[in-house]
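pls ignore typos typing on phone
iron/sulfur cluster + seq
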Amino acid sequence: MQVLLAEEYGFCFGVERAVEMVEEALAGGATVRTLGPLIHNTQETERLEAEGVRTIATPGEVERDVTAVIRAHGVTPQVQRDLEARASKVVDATCPFVTKVQKLAERAAEQGRDVVVVGNPDHPEMIGVVGYAPANSYVVRDASEVAALPWLHAPLVVSQTTLKLNTFLEAAEAVRARSDAEPQIVNTICSATRDRQDAARALAGHVEVFYIIGGKHSSNSIKLLAVCREQCERSYLIETPEEINPEDIGGAARVGVTAGASTPDWLIKQVVARLREIGARQEAA
Ligand code: SF4
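k done
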């Protein structure tokens, strides 16, 4: 039985970088606190906790002598200043793609222009971006919410990095119709999610069974499962190798594997190893 990995899977660039920055701080002997969970993966969170990493909810919880970590979603400048005032060191693991959105918003606000961000207003990434243009930014989930905005002045339109392209383009068009000048439309959607889906789709037609490794409640993992099921009925979402049922692989010559953007490499390797072991046992029987 062959085990085939999708071309793109697992940690995105920003999450991988954030985890590496935490590892580096730990290696230097720091007591590490992350503002909000660094990653939405139970197994990886437990591993980091075992290394002494704790999550805090607000900068007020920062104790003296700790290294505070800003996760990939980023924070508002105010929160960053709070952390810097309290922690002995701040590690800024904001994903560079998110930093780009923050800087665009900041510059537009300095020029006195309005900023429209398309995305979920409750998402930490959006809260951080709005913090860079607090007086004149608006978050809309989609085009339908643009009509409720005031008349806009030479607006900048940017997107949450995980947004669907159509949602962004429709909202940008709606903004154009509500502006006093041509808006500056910058597509700031990150390709990580789409790349993983495209790679899973490309492999799904060539395997008999597909395993998607990721959180059962993770929206990007659930979407990966749906993409795989379109072509491979025997697709399963699992969090750990123990969840593989050998009967599900029975008779398969090729098994595909992919993983959500928060799934660490070590967990993916464990799943691949268990699949190979089950395959070898079935072939020997
Ligand atoms: S999904 Fe994209 S923008 Fe978000 S952390 Fe990952 S690489 Fe950065």
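The domain at 2-10+193-284 is CATH 3.40.1010.20 (Cobalt-precorrin-4 Transmethylase; domain 1). The mean pLDDT is 96. more later
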